[in-house]
Amino acid sequence: MRRLNVLALGIMLATGMLASCSRKDKAPERPAEVAAPADAAGMMGLVPEDPGVAGWARRGEVRFFGEDDLFELINGAAESYFVYGFRQVAAAEYGSPAQSSPILLELYRLADARNAFGIYRSELQSDADFRPIGAEGYIGETGLNFWAGPYYAKLAVYEESEELRREMEKFALRLAERIGAPGGLPPEVALFPEKDLVPHSIRFLPADVLGQTYLREAFEARYRSGGGETRVVVLSPGGEAAAREAMDKYRIFTAGGGEVLREVSSPGDGGFVGNDAYYGPMAALRSGGRIAIALGGPSADAALGQAAACLRAK
């Protein structure tokens, strides 16, 4: 497995855990439901002085950050957390006399489980070594991330060693126990057929999907077949009328930078196929209030087939 970059870890420890989401020139919209931070007392129960791992204890006080001061912890990455309904983060350091490195913990509370899944998957590394921690987790040489319910946990150590990796995993398992029932993957994951699906590629995109402000709250997956890759986005803009309007806007967008090759009348309520300016072959279909867009792959017809498969899924 590719090691977590040690230099990046140094930066991460200087500014807080580094969120690996890219930033846009325009700050993403913050979900309307984000209000006051969660009660710190509730978070305190998840980061006790005794973490339940032999030899380890919390050093110093737990630091809490809300929407107004999150940048103090993770600097420029804060905006990417706001779009996922960030509520509050608890940051703590744990030490053991038997270890030369502490364990640094950041426990984020998001608006709900779907958003916790979203930010977790947005920072997922392509060569992740997965672990059954919480709903899903993975470990690297110097870090471990997992999500459970509305929480996203990030652990890190200064040094690379198998012993520290084992201690981080023990620590994470006890933290997951304190969080409680982790829940499962969002139900929208079932919209993506398993054939040719790239494992762990499904993500939640809360806003500005495909760079379009009118496309929101989508799920995305990657499919790989015959050496090519197709990106599929499925979303429900909010009823049939809203979906129809979004399709009309996306058709205009596609024609402006690429080309619309032809209209199709089925499956569902039909749509169009064409060439995207960036991805190449593409297809967009609508069925009632749901839209499926496939980008890339060997041909527009192949993209149409992939979009249709996701549109038919229940």
How many DSSP H or I helices?
A: 8
The total tally of domains equals 2
Total strands: the figure is 14
CATH class of the largest domain: Alpha Beta
- Radius of gyration, whole Å: 21 Å
The CATH architecture classification of the largest domain is 3-Layer(aba) Sandwich
pLDDT averaged residue by residue:
88
Strand order of the largest sheet: 1-2-3-7-6-5-4
Helix content: 25-40%
Beginning-to-end CA distance, first to last residue: 35 Å
Task: Indicate the proportion of strand residues.
Answer: 25-35%
CATH-derived topology of the largest domain: Protein Transport Mog1p, Chain A
What's the main sheet like?
7 strands, antiparallel
Explain the overall architecture.
The structure is a single chain. The protein is of the alpha+beta class and 314 residues long. Helices cover 26% and strands 28% of the residues. It is built from eight helices and 14 strands. The protein has helices at 6-15, 40-44, 71-74, 78-82, 113-122, 162-179, 240-257, 300-312, and strands spanning 57-65, 88-95, 103-109, 129-131, 136-139, 143-148, 151-156, 203-205, 218-225, 228-235, 259-264, 271-276, 280-287, 290-296. The longest helix is centred in the middle third of the chain and has 18 residues, at 162-179. Mean pLDDT is 88; it is low at 1-38.
